[in-house]
Amino acid sequence: MENTTFCITRTAALPIFRPVIRVSEVSYWTLPVPYGRQVQGANLLAPFSQLVCALPVVRSHHERWDGTGYPDGLTGEAIPLSARIFALADTLDAMSSDRPYREALPYTMIRAEVVQMAGVQFDPNLVQAFLVISEQEWKHLRDARDTVSPANRSTFAA
User: Fold this and answer.
1) Which of 86, 97, 130 is nearest to 111 (CA)?
2) Which of 82, 141, 131 is nearest to 108 (CA)?
3) Integer Cα distance of 16 and 52 in angstroms
4) Are the C-beta atoms of residues 122 and 65 closer than 8 Å to each other?
5) Which residues pair with 134 in a beta bridge?
6) For residues 101 and 95, is the Cβ–Cβ distance under 8 A?
């Protein structure tokens, strides 16, 4: 788990590298979603030895526990643990953040959605770990996250 934590921490810093390693906006956004962006991202990072542990997250964070994700259609524990953790964390961040089209969802709705997607989108063991977090703890974590300036906040949206 220690190595997984290190890899996820390093992966969270990847948006810093976007301006340096990004392919042109046109070529990136014209890649077919199920095959292109995640594979292209992993290929772009592969030459950087310091980021090698981030490759499974970049490539596999859109895989789903039931095998209906992309780009490789991996199922269950064949999905790298770091990618499974990142997928859940990214989803939690998205649902708990204000978006231009909606306000952040309340904890009860987030919790219900995550429970509903256990064994479908998310690793059921990770969902059980998430459910240990009380609403009070969740609010504390969210408030701590929100005190970081948006310019320094690392969000990874693919």
Assistant:
1) 130
2) 131
3) 16
4) yes
5) none
6) no
CB 142 within 8 A of CB 103: no
Q: Residues 2-33: pLDDT tens digits?
A: 455 555 544 554 544 444 444 454 555 555 55
**155: alpha, beta or left, given left = phi > 0 and alpha = psi -120 to 50?**
beta
DSSP result, 37-92: HHHHHHHHHTT-GGGGGGHHHHHHTT--TTS--SSS---GGGS-HHHHHHHHHHHH
Q: What is the pTM of this model?
A: 0.74
3-state secondary structure of 99: strand
Tens of pLDDT, residue by residue over 84-99, are 999 999 999 999 999 9
C-alpha span between 131 and 30 (Å, rounded) = 38
Nearest one of 26, 7, 2 to 86, comparing CA atoms = 7
